[in-house]
Design a protein that fits this description.
ten-stranded mixed β-sheet; binds 3-isopropylmalic acid; two-stranded antiparallel sheet; globular; binds magnesium ion; Isopropylmalate Dehydrogenase; 12 strands; alpha/beta
């Protein structure tokens, strides 16, 4: 082909992408407000196992949710729905990030607890289809990826609001190989998409009383898209005089997170997708690694809660899946409970997780048969939840006794 033809083909591809983004903007404009769960007669919680260790750890989290919501489930106000088939084998068979029938099932839920799913990449035995995670965030419009990180003894109390549907991820599987020499990817920032995530972060900063927000971009170099994100933050900040805010570039931000003196100053962060992906892994490392963190993906109609670690296929191959640590997905379950209005249950579960995992450690998981199984760990958590002295035990932990 001649250069001219390559350009025409690329233009056509680009035109289609623009049409899709315009359609997405229209949808965002028409969006209703957040679901009020307290007004529902029946709230459906979907449980998606995913790949590798996913079904094992998710099962432990399901038991705990059922334990804490026993009365509501009994009364039919809450329904737990298992959704099978979001496995890499099934996705590969359908050549779809989320097969249609599974997406239809997901859309019947209000909130979803999801185990890790394998993300295909070039060279894998799987077709290089889009990540199920990324697809679910887009399909269900889960625009706010909320990731808390706490290390009380180091004064770290952070919450990340990562934009979850735009940026480098929006068209991550839709780049153009213009010809064999030239590859182009795109990054997308919309006014609507940025507005809603930045607004959510300011709201959180205000409501939580933290009153401190940090916007992270690379607007000095990525001038158009990151520049827009930062401009919108400036605009929204005017509505929140009580929230002290600042803006940082992603490179120096990653450095400041390891500055023991400075990092305690940060409280709430808001940032575009890819920077959020990277910074939240770094942040989780201070807390004990990505395996210890929970993650909420929140939209106006749906919300999905997940562990942020991978599916550890090797543990399954080696017959060790029952020793996989369910802490992260149980943390995600606590976030789910809080999101649907069960604050008391959520905070008891957080406390039990702190006590069992960080403090008393009567049962320790090693990922092998010299440690506890996920089932034993879930039992330990449920025993702890039943203790009328739970709060005292947790306060002793927080006081460093
Ligand atoms: C995360 C993960 C995902 C992401 C992967 C699995 C696609 O790293 O949730 O942070 O990049 O968003
Ligand atoms: Mg990540």
């Amino acid at each position: 082909m001649k250069q001219r033809e390559y350009i025409e083909k690329a233009k056509e591809h680009f035109g289609i992408l623009l049409e899709q983004q315009f359609a997405r903007i229209e949808k965002m404009k028409a969006e209703e407000d957040f679901t009020d769960y307290s007004k529902l007669d029946e709230l459906v919680i979907g449980i998606v196992g995913g790949d590798g260790i996913g079904p094992y750890i998710t099962e432990e989290a399901r038991k705990i949710i059922e334990f804490l919501l026993a009365d509501e489930i009994e009364a039919g106000r809450i329904v737990i729905k298992n959704i099978d088939g979001l496995t890499i084998e099934n996705r590969a068979r359908h050549q779809q990030a989320i097969p249609d029938d599974i997406l239809a099932e997901l859309k019947k839920c209000h909130v979803i607890l999801k185990g890790p799913t394998t993300t295909p990449r070039a060279g894998d035995p799987w077709p290089n289809i889009e990540s199920a995670n990324v697809a679910m965030r887009k399909e269900l419009d889960l625009f706010a990826n909320v990731r808390p990180v706490q290390v009380p003894e180091q004064g770290i109390d952070w919450v990340f609001y990562r934009e979850n549907t735009e940026g480098a991820y929006a068209l991550g599987s839709d780049g153009i190989m213009v010809n064999e020499d030239l590859g182009i990817d795109f990054t997308v920032t919309t006014y609507e998409g940025s507005y809603r995530i930045i607004k959510a972060a300011f709201e959180h900063a205000k409501k939580s009383g933290k009153n401190r927000l940090t916007v992270v971009t690379k607007a000095n170099v990525i001038k158009t898209t990151d520049g827009l994100f930062l401009d919108i933050a400036r605009e929204i900040a005017k509505d929140y005089p009580e929230v002290e805010w600042d803006d940082w570039y992603i490179d120096i931000m990653t450095a400041k997170l390891i500055d023991e003196k400075r990092r305690q100053e940060f409280k709430v962060f808001v940032l575009p997708n890819l920077y959020g992906d990277i910074l939240t892994d770094e942040a989780a490392e201070f807390q004990g690694g990505v395996g210890t963190a929970g993650s909420a993906n929140i939209g106006k109609r749906y919300a999905m809660f997940e562990a942020i670690h991978g599916s550890a296929p090797r543990m399954v191959q080696e017959g060790r899946a029952q020793y996989a640590d369910p802490s992260s997905i149980i943390r995600a379950a606590a976030m789910l409970l809080e999101h649907i209005g069960f604050q008391k249950e959520a905070s008891r579960l957080q406390m039990a997780l702190d006590i069992c995992g960080n403090y008393e450690k009567k049962i320790v998981m090693t990922g092998r048969d010299n440690g506890a199984t996920g089932d034993e760990y879930a039992e330990y958590i449920m025993d702890t939840l039943q203790d009328s002295k739970l709060k005292e035990r947790w306060e002793a932990y927080r006081a460093g006794n």
